[in-house]
Amino acid sequence: MKKRGFALIALFAVSALGFARGPVDPRIQTRVQEFLDRAEKCLGDGKSSEAKTVAEMLLFRRALRYSVDFGDLPPERAEEARGALQEAMASWSDAVNGTVEFVPYTGRFADVRISFVDSVRSGSCEVAGHAVWRRQVLNWREDQFSYQVSAEILIRTTLPGGSRMSPSMMRHTALHELGHVLGLNDSARSGEAMSALNPFAPVSKPAGAEVLSLNGVFDQAGLFLSQAMQQDLLESLNRSS
Ligand SMILES: [Zn+2]
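Above: the input record for the complex with zinc ion. Below: its predicted structure, written as tokens.
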């Protein structure tokens, strides 16, 4: 947790009143920024249950359950693909000190569904991979909230010319698409996980700046979560006194 403190100081100014938000981080998806704003506003309005759920969602409090479909890859190629994917997941988990945890799941409704396929297109372009992701906070009854994180990821196994995607190319692609699920935008800087795949220089792990941005979100969400829990505790003490 100590490390978190440094990231916090670098990214956000702390004011006497609490927490003054710094400028919007262009690496972080607008949707994620909006959820941070929502958690903060809920706290201000005394809606601690809602703030708590939003913060828990931002922190991926529930491990992300994932399923993998290797399509018609022969067994040894499927093993390569599995290895690449597991390395990508481990890189992200390590980078954020275990805040995000990925667990394999064989049931029907995995949070993250990953498919390895021959080729992937986005519009008319051949791409290395593709991800569609969604986060939602659901309001059941007045004060009851839950959240959902879901994503579908495609990773290609063959380059447009017909040669194989190497394990390190698939690892970069998996890192990149998972980075989107975790809340990062694309990056134009080469050497970063969120940059486009360069088949001659695939990236093996997230760059320091990417990790710092993501940890900045987790630090803030963690602070909001502890504030929401304090608010909850105070309310229940007031009720019982
Ligand atoms: Zn992308």
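Notes for the reader.
The domain at 2-235 is CATH 3.40.390.10 (Collagenase (Catalytic Domain)).
The pocket of zinc ion is lined by residues 176, 180, 186 (CB under 6 Å).
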